[in-house]
Amino acid sequence: MSQSLHFVVSSSRSPNLTLPNRSYLKLSPPPSNLRFPVTFVRRPISASSSDVDSNSPSKVLVSDNGKGGVLPATSPEYVPPPSDSSSIDVDAVTEADLKENGFRSTRRTKLVCTIGPATCGFEQLEALAVGGMNVARINMCHGSREWHRRVIERVRRLNEEKGFAVAIMMDTEGSEIHMGELGGAPSAKAEDGEIWTFSVRAFDSPRPERTINVNYDGFAEDVKVGDELLVDGGMVRFDVIEKIGPDVKCRCTDPGLLLPRANLTFWRDGSLVRERNAMLPTISSKDWLDIDFGIAEGVDFIAISFVKSAEVIKHLKSYIAARSRDSDIAVIAKIESIDSLKNLEEIIQASDGAMVARGDLGAQIPLEQVPSAQQRIVQLCRHLNKPVIVASQLLESMIEYPTPTRAEVADVSEAVRQRADALMLSGESAMGLFPEKALAVLRSVSVRIEKWWREEKRHEAMELPDIASSFSDSISEQICNSAAKMANNLAVDALFVYTKTGHMASLLSRCRPDCPIFAFTSTTSVRRRLNLQWGLIPFRLSFSDDMESNLNRTFSLLKARGMIKSGDLVIAVSDMLQSIQVMNVP
Ligand SMILES: Nc1ncnc2c1ncn2[C@@H]1O[C@H](COP(=O)(O)OP(=O)(O)O)[C@@H](O)[C@H]1O
Ligand SMILES: C=C(OP(=O)(O)O)C(=O)O
Ligand SMILES: [K+]
Ligand SMILES: [Mg+2]
């Protein structure tokens, strides 16, 4: 059976348009001069595309025999066609994935990799991109600006030469209290019962034995004898036993390895001590210099550590808007402090996205409260239509071992099941022994859990609240909600969205539909930014206000590359023409 359908939700959108009433939103009958004959064919989800991974980047590529490795989906020699106004930009890995596995099995959860000494080379970065890295994160806590500049350059070159759209996220150091450099040593071992001195004094090299420099001047004033000092949220513990001027003497109670620049917190009667250190600025003077660096380098995201209030986010956004030409750097609020949990909704509202920074969060609130905080942050971000990253210790054991613990796989699964936009690797990719394998685990677990969720239809009946702030936005939101619902009900192969700013694409992503979302946008920076959002496959394509010609061009370009085929069922929406169109690819 086939029949013709055509949904058009009225005409074009203009910011100044005042809409008379809601009857404006209507489904028009098929016009007699229907130029898009729409054939609607019902078919089962599994009819055409395989949900099973084959030899693709989505396959489980990690083996614990020590030999397993990432099998690149494409040859490293791949050179994408030159981009001009008549072409479409998509990376080789996505292209191969779509061709080999069909739309259904594309990965929806995005992957962020922290770049460090283990992954900063061009080939290493390329291996990560081939392995599915969507965003490269540089952490300004470590390394020099010159080091970070070279990483950014390599990622940019990779994008240009190989057609990737890997975005760059710069993460600020923030005013955290941390240890100094250990005089060049990679680590220092603290044994049970040993007395160590923590001091704001700077020491000459070589560092005196059992002495640690602390970066915060008020340290000795804030701590009290009897406090507990936690290194890296409890990897090593000390009791404060004596204060002598700037020096704080501590006895080790939980032995372990001290790493350079490890984070320090102190606890009194079971709670985090918040004295003068609570007054430290969220963005330090060093952070402002790093932010200037990030703006000059044109990074895509700036993640702000230890956010306490929405004000700091608003302040930074206006700073960026005044300095960055296109002001298109997105600001990500890292939720990792008690204050950020208190002001969560307004912080997320003010930001362009959030990160559940579980490392420091778990050092600021009792560990057993971290999972519920994570769930709350992920849900709130989805309600407010902000991308959310779940970060820290997802595969911590893979810093040293080629295979994850079962508990780590369960943790990754839970984040995917919560439908977070993105998962992040920290030490696993920055300085671990198996960065590509860790990425492959995130990839295969994501694909498998997403598939499970679709099969089981584990849609929690999440009623998304209305978030539009204008009637025009409300139309976009309703169109996207309806289009996503239709896409599920009709089991379409893909949603297409033509979007200039990316807003409509994010509204579709927010619905977490069963099919992938092909997001067509005319600028490379928007394309890169969309790479952080759940379910979006961003393409760069120059398009016009004429949806008919956009669709025809897209179909022929994608067909020529073998990424779609005649008969695929597609729903298209756009932010120029507020419409929902259902059609088979001609
Ligand atoms: N640019 C870098 N240079 C050197 N080491 C780095 C760099 N980035 C990250 N690392 C290493 O990887 C570890 C994990 O990274 P991350 O989680 O981002 O930092 P942190 O542990 O300080 O919060 C760091 O502790 C550090 O040892
Ligand atoms: C991601 C985090 O921040 P950073 O790695 O910068 O400490 C965290 O604390 O979990
Ligand atoms: K940081
Ligand atoms: Mg942190």
From TrEMBL:
Entry EC number(s): 2.7.1.40
Keywords, ordered alphabetically: ATP-binding, Chloroplast, Glycolysis, Kinase, Magnesium, Metal-binding, Nucleotide-binding, Plastid, Potassium, Pyruvate, Transferase, Transit peptide
Localization annotation: Plastid, Chloroplast
Pathway this chain belongs to: Carbohydrate degradation; glycolysis; pyruvate from D-glyceraldehyde 3-phosphate: step 5/5
Molecular function (Gene Ontology), one example: kinase activity
First-level EC class: transferase
Required cofactor(s): K(+); Mg(2+)
Compositional bias (Low complexity): 47-58
GO cellular component: a single term: chloroplast stroma
Domain Pyruvate kinase barrel: 107-438
Chain ranges of the Pyruvate kinase C-terminal domain: 477-576
Chain positions covered by the region annotation Disordered: 47-89
Catalytic activity field: pyruvate + ATP = phosphoenolpyruvate + ADP + H(+)
Similarity-based family: Belongs to the pyruvate kinase family.
Assembly, per entry: Oligomer of alpha and beta subunits.
Descriptive protein name: Pyruvate kinase
